[in-house]
């Protein structure tokens, strides 16, 4: 994470990425056009940070590495470019871009506090990016888990969705079933944030994850609804000093679409 002062001192030497996206279907691009950080480009969760949805891989499968590199290159992200991403939801969606870049060895950070933390001037409308060349890099297998690996019980499994979705009390129209992966522990991404929308300190995050059975050296895998907000927990784990945490990319959207997969409900792992 970096703060607004750090970004302000380096304007022009970074690519700022506005990753606003809305679960209710509102347009992130329209929100971006109403006001964004100076020079920021808009990055679409659905088309740049994801491959097309399907029942096998979920609503937001990982993009093909070549498609990902090509799309980001068109947005001025090249080899060696430092990216700072933000959104209007405490990093819930920007975390996807940051984790994808960091997992492949590229420099990227979240703007701590997101759009609300920026007190300077905002630009409106679109930005015309200067194309760059970003070399494709394969997604690291050691940081990804399949549904069978999630079900194996070999790691602590964290569910980054809100508690009411974890319990099954709230069901999205896009979900095939309500509840959670049996054995998964509820770790809503919003719990990583202080009341002002900034991330908790590393010490506070260590306490949070320790209470969930996770500390340095623990095998851990994180999922959410479709593999997007899970990245918020992954970055929080990194901030807490827990390395090697993995993502289940298909997440609940893929798990619940498979009728052979068991489902647990309620507030306990089950």
Would you mind describing this structure in some detail?
The chain is of the alpha/beta class. It folds into two domains: 4-117, 3-Layer(aba) Sandwich (Oxidized Rhodanese, domain 1); 141-255, Oxidized Rhodanese, domain 1, CATH 3.40.250. Helices cover 25% and strands 9% of the residues. The chain has helices spanning 4-9, 28-34, 65-73, 94-103, 147-151, 163-167, 202-211, 230-239, 251-255, and strands at 15-18, 41-42, 83-86, 108-110, 156-159, 185-186, 220-223, 246-247. Strands 2-1-3-4 form a four-stranded parallel β-sheet. Helix 2 links the parallel strand 1 (15-18) and strand 2 (41-42). The longest helix is centred in the middle third of the chain and has 10 residues, at 94-103. It is globular and about 50 Å long. The protein starts with a helix and ends in a 15-residue tail after the last helix.
Task: Write out key terms for the chains shown.
270 residues; alpha/beta; Oxidized Rhodanese, domain 1; 2 domains; 4-stranded parallel sheet
Summarize the structure.
The protein is an alpha/beta fold and about 270 residues long. The protein contains nine helices and eight strands.
CATH topology of the largest domain: Oxidized Rhodanese, domain 1
Helix content: 10-25%
The CATH homologous superfamily name of the largest domain equals Rhodanese-like domain
Kindly give the count of domains.
2
The whole-angstrom Rg is 18 Å
Shape: globular
H/E topology pattern: HEHEHEHEHEHEHEHEH
Unreliable stretches (pLDDT < 50, length at least 5) are none
CATH architecture of the largest domain: 3-Layer(aba) Sandwich
């Amino acid at each position: 994470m970096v703060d607004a002062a750090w970004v302000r001192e380096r304007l022009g030497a970074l690519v700022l990425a506005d990753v606003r996206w809305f679960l209710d279907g509102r347009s992130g691009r329209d929100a971006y056009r109403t006001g964004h950080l100076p020079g920021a480009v808009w990055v679409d969760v659905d088309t740049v940070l994801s491959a097309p949805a399907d029942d096998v891989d979920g609503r937001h499968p990982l993009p093909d590495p070549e498609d990902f590199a090509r799309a980001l290159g068109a947005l001025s992200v090249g080899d060696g470019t430092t990216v700072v991403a933000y959104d209007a939801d405490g990093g819930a969606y920007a975390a996807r871009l940051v984790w994808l870049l960091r997992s492949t060895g590229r420099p990227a950070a979240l703007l701590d506090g997101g759009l609300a933390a920026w007190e300077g001037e905002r630009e409106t409308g679109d930005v015309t990016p200067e194309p760059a060349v970003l070399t494709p890099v394969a997604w690291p297998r050691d940081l990804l888990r399949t549904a069978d690996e999630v079900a194996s019980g070999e790691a602590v499994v964290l569910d980054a969705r809100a508690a009411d979705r974890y319990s099954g009390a709230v069901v999205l129209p896009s979900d095939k079933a309500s509840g959670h992966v049996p054995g998964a522990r509820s770790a809503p991404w919003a719990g990583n944030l202080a009341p002002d929308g900034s991330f908790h300190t590393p010490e506070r995050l260590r306490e949070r994850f320790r209470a969930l059975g996770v500390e340095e050296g623990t095998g851990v895998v994180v999922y959410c609804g479709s593999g997007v907000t899970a990245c918020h927990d992954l970055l929080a784990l990194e901030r807490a000093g827990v390395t090697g945490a993995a993502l289940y990319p298909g997440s609940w959207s893929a798990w619940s679409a498979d009728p052979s997969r068991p489902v647990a409900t309620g507030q306990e792992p089950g």
